[in-house]
Amino acid sequence: MTKRYAHVTPILVGAVPGLVYDQSSGPMSHILIVEDDRDIAELVERYLVRAGHTTDTLGAGDRALASVRIRVPDMVILDLMLPGLDGLEVCRALRRDPDTRALPIIMLTARSEESDRIAGLELGADDYVTKPFSPSELVARVGALLRRAQRWAESGRMALTCGPLELDRERHRVTDRGQDVHLTAKEFLLLEYLMQHRGRVLSRDLLLTDVWGYRYTGGTRTVDVHVRRLREKMPYLGEAIDTVKQFGYRLAEPGPSDDRDGRPPRSDRR
Questions:
Q1: Smallest Cα–Cα separation from 191: which of 155, 225, 230?
Q2: DSSP one-letter string for 10-53
Q3: Under CATH, domain 30-152 is a member of which superfamily?
Q4: Is the pTM of this model over 0.90?
Q5: CATH code for residues 155-268
Q6: What is the pLDDT of residues 49-87, one digit of tens each?
């Protein structure tokens, strides 16, 4: 069956209402574009190359996985609807492989339903862009995600702790009572941000700005999905992350029992 897409309209930077772009210079990276619509793939490639990145373009999911096994890119831009192995299956396979578990992934989708977007986030995609989209917006999101990955690499060896959890920036590793916890790149950055701001109430908009790298009016469901995944993967956070109704989240400050029994302070348990 031939896939049909709405036309992708090149929109100038700043033309998307509610989005504030951060296009400060950063290290250029190699990006794998997995998109079977040639016109869309060439458009994305043209804008990324113009921004200084190098790219490879593939039109099938199985070919993408084979390519990544040979050379791991700095990021994958992944279409949801691909012939054969679709984007969700590719994303799942990348997250299962220790060598690509933390590989940044931005998913492209022609579907506007929230359930489709959430499905990609649940499998570990770090961001999504709905077609038709602005190529300039996509480049801005690519840059924001890559800059944060570079910041981790330049931050030096430094561990953050929270009860039984330890986050090692240099090794991009999180452990819970000494056992490895496998997180996506965005989950790792969100946990790092919460641990750096323990005790503070953080709005969803603030988290979008500081963790995702852009500010968008609405669309905060992305934050909720990632917080839920952190709670599911690390039971300690199920109680330590407090939901502030209609506003955002707060990671409980350390208390007398915080490091002793691996449980949040009593005053913060729900």
A1: 230
A2: ---TT-STT-B---------EEEEE-S-HHHHHHHHHHHHHTT-
A3: Response regulator (3.40.50.2300)
A4: no
A5: 1.10.10.10
A6: 999 999 999 999 999 999 999 999 999 999 988 988 999
